[in-house]
TrEMBL record:
Record's keyword annotation contains Metal-binding: yes
EC number: 3.5.1.19
InterPro entries associated with the record: Isochorismatase-like_dom, Isochorismatase-like_sf, Isochorismatase_Nicotinamidase
Pfam families: Isochorismatase
PANTHER family to which the protein is assigned, alphabetical: LD05707P (PTHR11080:SF2), PYRAZINAMIDASE/NICOTINAMIDASE (PTHR11080)
Protein name: nicotinamidase
Protein species of origin: Photobacterium aquae
Domain Isochorismatase-like: 8-199
């Protein structure tokens, strides 16, 4: 059975390299940790946000972010980010070219969809991105996850994969960065409660492989 490593949204939009978008502290420093994580795996997957600038959830300033919306597949307001063709869409320094990954998921390209997890295009989790099916077809048993941000897209992706009951899911905190300490702790608690393995370093991960 194979091991897969997933780089969740390691994009400049979520780093200080794009301060006007959604910068996560030290988000641009994950390249080495994600590369080290991938060395433990047989397959490497990349996920990327790919949002249109005219999405229905876009607001003009950070002051108006995180306001609730009533759309079925866009729950909160955000400033424009990860727009294809901009610097924010690009991956952080030190990662392979997109074509060097074994599989890539682009998510959120429709203007009325703002998914967090990599397994479904919609918040209602009815429209598969094909990630679960691809992992199953590759006989993947264990998945190691890192990326941005711990308390949003990493958490949701891990929980979606765990919900399938098909995989052993490990979150590698050394290859993640989160928005706030409190919400990261809440995310880790939520993941642990459903059986996701939370590891602080590669040595700990290897004891679960």
């Amino acid at each position: 059975m194979a091991i897969a490593s997933i780089d969740v949204d390691p994009q400049k939009t979520f780093t200080p390299l794009c301060p006007d978008e959604l910068p996560v502290h030290d988000g641009d420093t994950l390249g080495a940790a994600l590369n080290a994580q991938a060395k433990l795996a047989d397959l490497r997957i990349l996920t990327k946000d790919a949002h249109p600038a005219n999405a229905i959830w876009v607001v003009d300033s950070h002051a108006h972010m995180l306001e609730p919306l009533t759309y079925p597949n866009a729950d909160l307001t955000w400033v424009a980010h990860a727009v294809p063709g901009t610097a924010g869409f690009e991956t952080i320094p030190g990662l392979p070219k997109v074509t060097e990954y074994d599989h890539v998921i682009w998510k959120g390209i429709e203007p009325d969809l703002h998914p967090y997890g990599a397994c479904y295009h919609d918040l209602q989790e009815k429209l598969s991105t094909g990630l679960i099916e691809w992992l199953s077809a590759q006989n993947v048993e264990t998945i190691i996850i890192g990326g941005l941000a711990t308390d949003y897209c990493v958490k949701t992706t891990a929980m979606q994969l765990q919900d399938t009951q098909k995989f052993k899911v490990i979150v590698n905190l050394s290859a993640c960065r989160g928005i706030a300490l409190e919400t990261v702790e809440e995310a880790c608690d939520a993941m642990s409660k459903i059986g996701i393995i939370i590891c602080s370093d590669l040595d700990t991960i290897q004891t679960h492989l």
